[in-house]
Structures are given as structure tokens and as C-alpha cells.
């Protein structure tokens, strides 16, 4: 048996659901990319906004499944005890899966305005806002399931050993669930609406989820490098400190233009200037631990994901955030393709890749082996490079598109209208779509790696 | 530098750092809220007036048709279709033109580069929507003012 605790096995369906949702998300992404250049593709049956909410919502659900799976795997092993209630984990899994399927299917099946009506949004209006498109009843269901999930893992730590990794991952998951409640708050005044909308969006992506992935990285690093827990957790606390030092007040970078007081331009700029620091520390941490490793773990693919995450998270969430975060620059770049480029490399690097890393480390043990056979690992490493390089190229193409957009539409003396500019930069959208197909191929290779068997030696 | 610390010290730094920055953040949020309490939030609408209720209804429609899924509104949303926080300014403060654009876009007869769905809105709904756009233009104009460059 490769699992330390039997009940860690509930992580498996969560990981599989996360992978399946990722496949769905990529497919929607490719449709969106085509709609960017072929304006009436699937129109009017499936307009852009519908596919877009399917794309972003599958992303959020997929990441949540990934985090939950990671927590079910990590928390018992760290606490050195079985999970409090494995049946509850299965129940939550079933209900969450149904909720997700019904939600995404309803987006595609009926016009959104009809869904608004059908789910009686009038009684308690929360729908129709970016990332928060789910019907109010779905938001409530997710909140309840989140609560049960937190009880389950928190209860596990209470009856077991307390570790730094467990405290931080639970702090992250708990605040993440709490922040989701802001999706239920929808003030009529647009300034207030935007002001509090960001409490979920910013604190999720730029604070508490970073905490979760740092704990995931620390967990895996202890196991594949053999480095002493005290050293790893010390780094983890320092990283977590910098995440919060920079993460709270940098929400000001969303308050520049929406009607909040002017001083947010100073607070937001100053603190988001420091936001690359925690990501730099994560990279430094991962590379230091890997360099000083005491053991050679047979799972080389997991090692590749760990180091890859460190690099791409720093590049994406750190540097690509930095280039457009200062108020005078953001004045020109806000609401352009620069932001699309940034969200893709940041979320892929910091979140999608860490979940791949977690699956890479945990899945073999869930399938009763310490690591996958060598051939499977080679295939998995191929998928790493295909996925990562195509996302890097997509980012480069979108950044070029963004710079051109800013220039032609906003910066020159003879600005051109939005639509004219979009047509003129369409070449780069085609390139993005092309590397998007490579991304899909990378994903197929990734899935294939689960089924690769070792060749019989002939000699 | 990190090697000089122990894990326990790092933990204390984390907890005190977190508490300090939560307090600083909360203080800033209070400051902003007090400013808004005193001077009124920008673009506040009065639900006791007919216009105020109209704007609130306009926002409901905005959400109901998920306009944010294609357009940006003061820079936030999707990047597929033009910014609408400044639409009122771009069309020279002309509500009638805006209404015509929502109902009958140039792309309807010829295939345009990108398409916008047809919503079959009533005159009342159209009026509510453009009033919603009009009040947002006020935020846009005073706080971003990019419209000088931005079509
Ligand atoms: C084949 C790969 C993909 C393609 C072709 C693709 C394409 C797109 C497109 C066209 C949009 C809409 C941009 C707009 O609003 O105008 C979008 C939005 C988005 N996508 Fe993807 N996507 C892909 C993969 C991913 C992945 C892997 C992630 C994250 C793990 C992701 C996260 C997002 C997010 C967060 C948004 C909202 C962007 C924002 O508001 O700035 N996408 N995607
Ligand atoms: Fe942010």
C-alpha cells in the first residue's frame, strides 16, 4: 500500500473531476478564440458571452475540485490520522458534481435571461456579473457544500497532529469559502458593486489561493526532497507573510478608475509593486529545496511540475502582473488584451500547474504505486512542455495584441475605434488559436500518460 | 537571512504581519466608507425618484442579459466588444442614438466582424438601459477620463 492513510483515497474522484473540467474549459476556450476571429461562429445559438461564462466557471469549479482533492490528500497525512468523515467527502463530491453539471448545462441549454427568470433571481438578484453568473440557488448550494468540506478537514486536524502546512491550507480554504459569500452581495450602486466584487476576485487570486498552493508545494517538497519539515515550514511562513503583506492592500490596483477615492492609486501602486516578492520567494524556496534535496524520489515528473510551477507562477502572476499594475500604466492598459494575457499565464502558472503537480505526486500513490513507470513519466513530461510552452506563446501573442491595441486605440494622436482595431490585430488572435490547439494536444498527451504501460524489456 | 530565523519566529512574524496588515486594510476601507458617507458615493441613485428606479431597473437588465460577458464597463468585464462605460460620451450624450444602436446594429443585415445578440427590448427597457449607461458615464468621465483618447 502506498497511501499512508486509507481515507486519503477520497482525493481521487476530486482529481479526476478537476481534469475533466479542465478538458471542458479548454474546449470552450478554443471556441472563444475562434469567435474572436470568426465573429458569427455558433451565432446566435451560443453567443460569446455564454461560452465565456462556461469557460470561466468551469475554470473556477475545476480549481475548487483540485484544491479539495489536494486537501483531502494532504490533511490526513499531515495530521497523521484518518479523515473525519470519508462518507461526507463522497457525499459532497456527488452533490458538487451534480451542481456543476446542471449549472454548465443550463448555461448552454437555455438563454441566460431565461435562466435568470427560471431561478427566480428577482427575489435575490446576484446573477449576471463576471465569475458570479451562477444562479443564486447554486451559489447557496456551493456555500453549504464548502462549509461541510471545511468541517470535514478541520475536524480531521483537531483529532490529529497540528502542522504548519495544515494550518495554512485550512486558513486558505476557509477564507476562500468565506470570500465566496461576496458573490451574494450585489448593491445597486455601481461603484459599491465593483468595490466589493473585487473582494472575492482579488483576494481569491492574489491572496488566499496563493496560500493554498504554497502549502501544497511545501507538502510535496518535504516528500520528494526529504528536507526537514522545520526548514520547509519556516519558508512557508515567510512566504505566507509576504502574501498577506502585499496581498490585502494591493486590492487598490482595482480601485483606480471605478470611483473610489484617489489615494487608492498610491496605496494600490505601492503595494502591488511588491506583489512579485512572495512569488519570487516561492521560486527561491522551490529551487533551494530541490537543490539541497536529500533523496532522489522516483517521481521525476512531479519534480518537473514543482519547478515549472515556481518559474511560471513568478513569470505570470509576478512579472506579467507587474507590467500593468502601476496606475499611470494601468490608465492605458486597463480593459485590454494585456489583462487577458496576464490572467491566462498567471492562473495557469500559479493554479493549474500546482494542481497538475499535486496530481502528479498523489495519483500514482492513489493507484497503488510510488511513482509511475518511466515511460509514463516521459509522456507526462512531454505534456508539461507542450502545455507550458503553448501557454507562454499564447501569452506572448496576446501581449503583442494588447500593446498594439493600447497604441492604436488609446495612445496615438489618431485613435481608432475598438472594432477597427480588433480587426487589425486579428492576426495575433489566429496565432493564439493555433497555440491553443497545441495546448489541447498537450492536454491529450497528459491524459494519455495515465494509461502508458512499461515496455517489457527485450534483452 | 532566512537561515537566521527559526520556524517559531517565522510563525510569529506571519501572525503579527497578518494582523497588522488586516488592520491597515480595514482602516483604509473605513476611511473610504466614511468619505462616501459624508460626500455620497459617486453616481448614487435615489430609489425614491422615478429616474432612480429606472436606473436600478436598467442595471437589472444589464445583468439579466449578461452584457458584461462581451463588453467592458469601466474597464472590467470581457474584451470582445467595445467599452460601454463611455458609450454615452462617445455618442455625444445622445440617448436616442444609443437606443437605436442597441436595437438595430449595423451588423444585422450584413455579417459584421463580431455579432451582438438581438434582445427584442421594449421602449421602456431600452430607456432604463440607456439611463444606466448614462449614469456610469459620469463615473467614467470623472475618474478615468480616458474617453479623450478612446473611441
Ligand atoms: C486552449 C486554451 C485557451 C484558450 C484558447 C482560451 C481563450 C480565452 C478567451 C478567448 C477568453 C475571453 C477573453 C475576453 O473576455 O475577451 C478567455 C477568458 C479567460 N480564460 Fe481562457 N483560454 C484558454 C485556456 C485557459 C486556461 C488554461 C485558463 C486558466 C487556467 C483560462 C482562464 C481564463 C480566464 C480567467 C478568463 C477571463 C479573462 C479575464 O477576465 O481577464 N483560460 N480565455
Ligand atoms: Fe488584483
List the SSEs and their pairings.
The complex is a heterodimer of chains A (459) and B (151).
Chain A: H1 11-37, H2 48-79, H3 86-109, H4 112-118, H5 136-158, H6 164-180, H7 190-225, H8 229-247, H9 263-273, H10 276-291, H11 300-322, H12 327-333, H13 337-366, H14 374-411, H15 418-424, H16 426-449
Chain B: H1 7-39, H2 50-64, E1 72-73, E2 76-77, H3 87-90, H4 95-103, H5 123-143
Antiparallel strand pairs in B: 1-2
Helix pairs in contact in B: 2-5, 4-5
The structure holds protoporphyrin IX containing FE (HEM) and fe (ii) ion.
Protoporphyrin IX containing FE sits between chains A (26, 29-30, 32-33, 36, 52, 55-56, 59, 339-340, 343-344, 347-348, 352, 436, 439-440) and B (78-80).
Q: Quickly count the domains of chain B.
A: 2
Strand-residue fraction of chain B?
under 5%
Quaternary state reads heterodimer
Helix and strand composition category of chain A? mainly alpha
Determine the strand fraction of chain A and express it as a percent band: under 5%
What does this structure look like?
Chain A has 16 helices and no strands. Chain A has 459 residues and is mainly alpha-helical. The two termini of chain A are 30 Å apart. The relative contact order of chain A is 0.09. The mean pLDDT of chain A is 96. Chain B is an all-alpha fold. Chain B folds into 2 domains: 2-39; 50-148, Cytochrome c-like domain (Cytochrome Bc1 Complex, Chain D, domain 2, Orthogonal Bundle). Helix content of chain B is 54%, strand content 3%. Chain B contains 5 helices and 2 strands. Chain B has helices at residues 7-39, 50-64, 87-90, 95-103, 123-143, and strands spanning 72-73, 76-77. Chain B has a two-stranded antiparallel sheet with strand order 1-2. In chain B, β1 and β2 (76-77) form a beta hairpin. In chain B, α2 crosses α5 (123-143) and α4 (95-103) crosses α5 (123-143). The longest helix of chain B has 33 residues, at 7-39. Chain B is elongated, with a radius of gyration of 22 Å. The mean pLDDT of chain B is 90. Classes of the chains: A mainly alpha (459), B mainly alpha (151). The interface between A and B is large, with 71 and 67 residues. The complex binds protoporphyrin IX containing FE and fe (ii) ion (FE2). Protoporphyrin IX containing FE (HEM) sits between chains A (26, 29-30, 32-33, 36, 52, 55-56, 59, 339-340, 343-344, 347-348, 352, 436, 439-440) and B (78-80).
